[in-house]
Amino acid sequence: MADVCIGHHTVGDGRPCFVAAEIGINHNGDMEIAKRLISVAVAAGCQAVKFQKRTVEVVYSPEELARERESPFGTTNGDLKRGVEFGLEQYRQIDRYCREVNILWFASCWDEASVDFIDAFSPPCYKIASASLTDDALLRHTRSKGRPLILSTGMSSLEQIDHAVEVVGKKDLILLHTCSTYPSAYGELNLRVIKSLKARLGVPVGYSGHETGLSSTIAAVALGACVVERHVTLDRAMWGTDQAASLEPNGITRLVRDIRLVESAMGDGVKKVQPSEIGVMKKLRRVG
């Protein structure tokens, strides 16, 4: 199973878990909130932050944009979608700030024009959201950029996943197991799929978590997840559709800490007497 290089990080079995903090639209259209969330990810020890990019008029139908929906941005769903969508100047600031604080950034692009938009910033990889897994045209267009792909597999059957992998190929591909409910119920996480996907497709597999706690994400790493993605927020009580399924600063910090502890604890699988046990052995054993 080949490793995948994302920026200067090598991702794969036996490598340190690559942790991406999903900012998504939790910035609520506010650049200062976005910068604070980037800083939270840096302080926690994450390797990257991720955003979402959409061409609103392409991704959503006129009827969906006109649908009534109250938000801080207006009274329609279109007001909301446009309000949380960053443009060129905001992404220039994101790119500049991430370089200043030395963290990678990339995005989930929901349409071809958004892929072209983000590609101007030379991202280290692309994320393809679970909702886009069956969009062959978008898969091909994203792959045409020649960058590593991270493909989420939520709300998808094995047959659909097989087809998506056939479309993009296995080179520089990482799959993410996920449950696309926000927040996800623990009984539906099905973490053993991480090993199943790895065995079935022979590519690195990670985990994108939308549950409210930490334990299952840490378990995913113990099961072999080489990438972890979790949403981050300044405060889960903030307005926004994804905030409740996100980790606050203390949560993402604890998650990265515990991932590193678990990695250290996994060892090499070879049973042997540890150096620290020798003194205890001599003290407590009567025989041998």
Radius of gyration: 20 Å
- Taken together, the total number of domains comes to 1
Order of helices and strands: EEEHEHHEEHHEHEHEHEHEHEHH
Count of individual beta strands: 12
Mean pLDDT: 96
Name of the CATH homologous superfamily: Aldolase class I
- Percent helix, as a range, is 25-40%
Q: How far apart are the first and last residues' alpha carbons, in Å? A: 42 Å
How many H/I helices? 12
Shape from CA axes? globular
CATH class: Alpha Beta
Q: Supply the CATH architecture.
A: Alpha-Beta Barrel
Strand order of the largest sheet: 7-4-3-12-11-10-9-8
Q: Which structural class do you get from the secondary structure elements? A: alpha/beta
Describe the protein's topology:
Blueprint: E1 4-6, E2 9-11, E3 18-24, H1 31-44, E4 48-53, H2 56-59, H3 62-66, E5 68-71, E6 74-76, H4 77-83, H5 88-101, E7 104-109, H6 112-119, E8 126-128, H7 136-143, E9 149-152, H8 158-168, E10 173-178, H9 193-201, E11 205-209, H10 215-222, E12 227-231, H11 249-266, H12 277-284
Parallel strand pairs: 3-4, 3-12, 4-7, 8-9, 9-10, 10-11, 11-12
Antiparallel strand pairs: 1-2, 5-6
Helix pairs in contact: 1-5, 1-11, 10-11
